[in-house]
């Protein structure tokens, strides 16, 4: 006796159509298109997670540079001076200090300046 696949194929179609809810037009109603765009959306989501990291790093560097210039130094000199001084602080924290606690950020800038001058 053969096994009929109607139940499983229906289940598979429903899975993709449920996932494609909210897509425009036929993309949310037609199985073939829904499946194609579901897969494509996964590709976009994967790439987007990588791009988000790049964008945040750019934002942090921009904020650090703006704060460093207000403190009388450059981004490059600040990062280089901190590395030579052995200060292990990441760009996310530096950017947060530049925005929310400028006095502490200024202390880091002075440390970097004095380290570069002593070198």
UniProtKB/TrEMBL annotation:
Gene3D superfamilies per the UniProt record, alphabetical: 6.10.160.10, Ribosomal protein L20
CDD domains for this protein: Ribosomal_L20
GO cellular-component term (any): ribonucleoprotein complex
Keyword field contains Ribonucleoprotein: yes
GO terms assigned for molecular function: rRNA binding; structural constituent of ribosome
Swiss-Prot/TrEMBL keywords: Ribonucleoprotein, Ribosomal protein, RNA-binding, rRNA-binding
Keyword rRNA-binding: yes
Listed Pfam families: Ribosomal_L20 (PF00453)
UniProt record similarity statement: Belongs to the bacterial ribosomal protein bL20 family.
Biological role: Binds directly to 23S ribosomal RNA and is necessary for the in vitro assembly process of the 50S ribosomal subunit. It is not involved in the protein synthesizing functions of that subunit.
PANTHER family: 39S RIBOSOMAL PROTEIN L20
Name of protein: Large ribosomal subunit protein bL20
Organism: Mesotoga infera
Source species taxonomy: Bacteria, Thermotogati, Thermotogota, Thermotogae, Kosmotogales
Gene name per UniProt: rplT
